[in-house]
Amino acid sequence: MNMTKATKARTVYLVLGAIFLVAAVLRVLAVVFEPPHHPDEYFQYLEPAWLRLQGVGVETWEWRDGVRSWFLPGYHGAWMALFLRLGLHNGRAIIKILQVHWALLSLVLVWAGWRGGALLSRWPDRKMTPPPPDEFPPAGWQGGLIGAFLCATFPLLVRFSVHTFSELASILCLVCALVLAGELAERSGRIRRGKVVWLGLLLGLGFCLRIQHATVPLLAGLWLLWTRRFRVLLWTFALALVPVLFFGLLDRLTWGEFFGSYIRYVRFNVVQGGAASFGTMPSAWYWEQFLHRLPISLSILGLVCLLGLRANWPFVGSAVGLVLLLSTQGHKEERFVMLCWPLVLIALAGTMGGWLQLLRSCSNQIRWSVRRGVAVVVALVLADGALHCKGNDFADLDADRFAAQAWIARQPDLTGLLYDQPFYVPGYMGFSHSFPQLEAHSPLLSNPLFSHLLLPRHSGLVGEAERAGFTQVFSVGNYVVLRRANVPN
Amino acid sequence: MVLTTTPILARPALRLRRWLLAAALVLVGLWLYGLGLFVTKRAPFEAQLPRQREPPSELYNLSRWDFGPTVRASSFYADWVNHHHPLFLVDAKTSPGLVEKWASAESDAHPWVEIRWREEHTLERVVLRHAGSVEGNHLTTRRYHIKCLQSGKNGPSVDVDSNTNAIATHDLHCEGAHGVRIDFERDGKEIVRVFEVETWGR
Fold first, then answer.
1. Who contacts A210 (Cβ-Cβ below 8 Å, separation ≥6)?
2. Contacts of A372-376 spanning 24+ positions with Cβ under 8 A
3. Could you say which of B46, B65, B97 has the minimum Cβ distance to residue A449?
4. Where on the phi/psi map is residue A432: left (φ > 0), alpha (ψ -120 to 50), or beta?
5. Inter-chain touch A444–B83, beta carbons under 8 Å
6. The pLDDT value given to residue A159
7. Which chain A residues have a beta carbon less than 8 Å from that of B46?
8. Which of residues 1-60 of B touch A (CB under 8 A)?
9. Cβ neighbours for A189, distance < 8 A, ≥ 6 positions apart
10. What's the CA gap between A474 and A465, in Å, rounded?
11. What pLDDT, on a 0 to 100 scale, did the predictor assign at position A359?
12. Whether A14 contacts chain B with CB within 8 A
């Protein structure tokens, strides 16, 4: 029996290790093939740091008006400063390194899937004594493996894991925090102080990084309250104040006002309704988006989550609450609700893992059927997700455009660049050049500084540029790059 | 029962945890060092254009873009659509559009620009095409200080207190010069806007 348990533990270890490996490989592939998701990942979180360090960069209105916290650009900026000191001056290469860094950090979601799936799998079994903290594999390990596998391979999560967004950083903090909250809610007797400290800090940090994600701290608190972990709740709240106060102080030091960027952010987006100026969507848009991503399996996923609601309500509640909260706002983007995916995937894994737990006393035939059923659901969700994972909030942010930009960035004779869309470029950092870059207009064609043009193949400006002395030197997909052949007088 | 299973897996797990902790500590240390660099550094803009033609022997505009000058600036105004880039100061465009000028950033309290040449020259005069040469004359900078840059010593300079000329010519004879620096004084909250800096010499 001892050997059996040791063998099982070793097998689970190996499977878990393999899942982590698969997750890492998929994320590295995402670094290579994933085009940018949104202009903000450059202009809000990288370019301000590059501007400070290199003296060249786009300063968006948010940064002029002090609507953003310096936390994330400062975090990126510290790495950038280190790489610059080490002699790496290529902004595009630094962006890639930062993407790899986020891709690797996002492996904590696999950890969260493992722990969260196992936790929710054993949760309904209230009669069961909580497992010893170091037991391996823990009770509910089947759900843990499903959760880890789903978080490791769900295509949208893999794609999103390489983007330098505040959403991603916040998701990593909050999903882990919710799992920790569950583990603390589960245990009776001695409470692990380290876990409480992590819970408080992660909740505070995740909330400050993306205040719209407030439903997770709320549900984590409710979970602790529901399970009468009052002391843990109190300590969590106190510790969560540490990052909150730090963000306030950072705003005081950078913008001259405690929580200045948050006050201006809420004032502009909510009080003044400024977010609507970037486009509004119908109230049901987020639900339509989910259906678009999982047209076949969303109903199954929803049904399974509903069946396990007794255990997974903090996860499902956080996700649904976030969607309801954000649906009240006119301006909607898919990245705003990306947090929902790991939450519902863990809820799904936990519920199905719970079913597998109940099979111990069943006949072989029932066990076989349920296991196959679980495998089919997992495969369906992943296949459906893979078939419908293409596309971003911005349809024009395609890989060809960025292939053309990467080609331009490598040109040693570049002295200025004109392009068709100023929002769909990686800023000065992404081009790794200090030369001017502007939206293409006819009068600018005569400025001798502009040596290159990036345009859609069928743009009217292509012919005009050719008459002004430019010739096509590169093309990819729908895009052409033109280079000035002779200098205007 | 536990004794036979736990140590087999606990040992590698413990070792892995130690390695991960050590790696994390190294990364945190490196990041903190980077943070120190990031907080203490605020770099000015600097770019050198490639030389596209050889300078003539007669009097000419030393700063012209195709002679390959280096342009430095304390800042520049670069919102998403309009980048008033420092290199527009040397594009030698005779009828520029509104965007083709250098403008300082709103947060820049003491704007300045420097234009350096590839070789030493004898400077004769500096011509500034201010905002008023293309847009409203009220945007023309009134007060600024032009200094000739010479190796190892302070070169001659010109103080301008109440300029009203949209195209301002300032005689500044300076031998062995390798560039000029212009320090501007902002007129209240107005940012500084300059379309062109010409430095005439031989």
1. A166, A167, A169, A170
2. A374/A146
3. B65
4. left
5. no
6. 94
7. 55, 434
8. 1, 4-6, 8-10, 13, 30-35, 37-39, 41-47, 49-50, 52
9. none
10. 14
11. 78
12. no
- Give me the residues of A, 62-101, that contact B with CB < 8 A: 64, 74, 77-85
How are the residues of chain A apportioned to helix, strand and coil, as percentages rounded to the nearest 5? 65, 5, 30
**What letter does residue A129 receive in the DSSP assignment?**
P
**Mean pLDDT in each 10-residue stretch from start to end of chain B (202 residues)?**
51 81 95 96 93 92 95 92 93 93 94 96 96 93 96 90 94 95 93 96 94
Of A5, A85, A423, the CB nearest to B80: A423
Quote the minimal CA–CA distance from A5 to chain B in Å. 7
- Tell me which amino acid residue B105 is: A
Query: Amino acid letter at A350?
Result: G
Confidence of residue A125 (pLDDT cuts 50, 70, 90): low
Local structure of residue A106 (DSSP, 8 states): T
Q: Say how many CB pairs under 8 Å bridge A and B.
A: 135
What letters, b where the CB count within 10 A reaches 16 and e where it falls short, cover B24-59? eeeeeeebeebbebbeeeeebbbbebeeeeebeeee
Q: Supply the pTM of this predicted model.
A: 0.91
**Helical spans, DSSP H, in A187-284:** 193-209, 215-226, 230-255, 260-266
CA A415 to chain B, closest CA, distance in angstroms equals 7
ipTM, 2 dp? 0.90
B195 and B129 in contact (C-beta within 8 Å)?
A: yes
A221-269: per-residue pLDDT in tens?
999 999 999 999 999 999 999 999 999 999 999 999 999 999 999 999 8
Q: What does the mean pLDDT of chain A come to?
A: 91
Residues 103-122 in B contacting A (C-alpha not used; CB under 8 Å): 105-107
A78 with B35: Cβ contact below 8 A: yes
> Where residue A187 falls among pLDDT bands split at 50, 70, 90?
low
Task: Write the pLDDT tens digit of every residue in A367-383.
Answer: 888 899 999 999 999 99
Look-up: residue for tokens 């292939």? A403
Helix (H, G, I), strand (E, B) or coil at A125: coil
Interface contact A6-B5, CB threshold 8 A: yes
Angle between helices A71-85 and B2-40 (to 10 degrees): 80
Comparing CB atoms, the residue among B9, B83, B96 nearest residue A136 is B9
- Give the 3-state secondary structure of residue A471: strand
Q: pLDDT band for position A147 (50/70/90)?
A: very high
- Per the CB < 8 Å rule, is A79 touching B50? no
Q: CB–CB of A81 and B42 under 8 A?
A: no
**CB-hemisphere CA count at 13 Å for B109?**
0
Minimum distance, in Å, between the CA of residue A162 and any CA atom of chain B: 19
Residue with tokens 């893992």: A353
* Residue A291 clears pLDDT 70, i.e. is over it: yes
Q: At what angle do helices A364-387 and A141-153 cross, to 10 degrees?
A: 20
SS3 B72: strand
Closest partner CB to B85 (pick from A53, A60, A436): A436
| CA proximity to A358, closest of A347, A348, A371 | A371
Residues of B in contact with A56 (CB under 8 A): 45, 47, 76, 78
